[in-house]
Design a protein that fits this description.
Elements (H helix, E strand, L loop, with lengths): L10 H15 L9 H19 L8 H18 L8 H7 L4 H11 L5 H17 L9 H7 L5 H12 L3 H12 L1
């Protein structure tokens, strides 16, 4: 490995790079109790990256391969949140795994949260941020929802109200009036 460049722009190298950059960004919000688990993730990603570069991936422990696959899936989901057709079968097909394996590895990494629930939560969090953004105050609510992969207004409103206790319109009015 010494004396040779390691690819970091795509594949596992990009996944490791993104994880480390995001870890640094979130450092102020993490608890000391998060360190052992995050350290394990970093070591697993490094091991997978080295194994890939050395073409010895089959020698990795199954847990490491599962963690790396879960991280790949999470990155894929984040990159495709805008797509309303993003579903577990689509995600599984993109990663050449079965839907049941996708659910199994995903729930192990997210303390039991399903793939669909995680997608819905990320989409609602994104819409929630956008609705409170003063620079987007003139953008219609349905446009913001569609941007986050939630094109059906009634479904978006119902899910938003269930998650935040207010309709998107009510939340936007409160959030923007609080900012002045």
């Amino acid at each position: 490995m010494l004396g040779r460049g390691l690819p970091g722009q795509d594949g596992l190298g990009a996944l490791l790079t993104d994880f480390l950059v995001n870890l640094d960004r979130q450092a102020d919000f993490l608890q000391p109790s998060d360190a052992p688990r995050l350290g394990t993730v970093v070591l697993d990603l490094l091991s997978a990256w080295f194994a890939h570069v050395l073409e010895t991936e089959a020698a990795l422990p199954p847990e490491t391969r599962q963690q790396v696959m879960a991280r790949r899936v999470q990155v894929f989901i984040r990159q495709h949140l805008h797509d309303p057709d993003l579903t577990p079968p689509v995600i599984a097909a993109a990663h050449h795994i079965s839907v049941s394996y996708l659910h199994r590895i995903f729930q192990q990494q997210t303390q039991g949260e399903t793939v669909a629930a995680w997608i819905r939560r990320l989409r609602l969090e994104g819409a929630h941020r956008d609705l409170a953004d003063p620079s987007l105050r003139s953008t219609p609510i349905h446009v913001l929802a569609t941007r986050w992969g939630l094109p059906r207004a009634s479904d978006f409103t119902r899910a938003f109200r269930a998650a935040y206790g207010l309709s998107p319109k009510e939340y936007r009015l409160r959030a923007l009036s609080a900012r002045g």
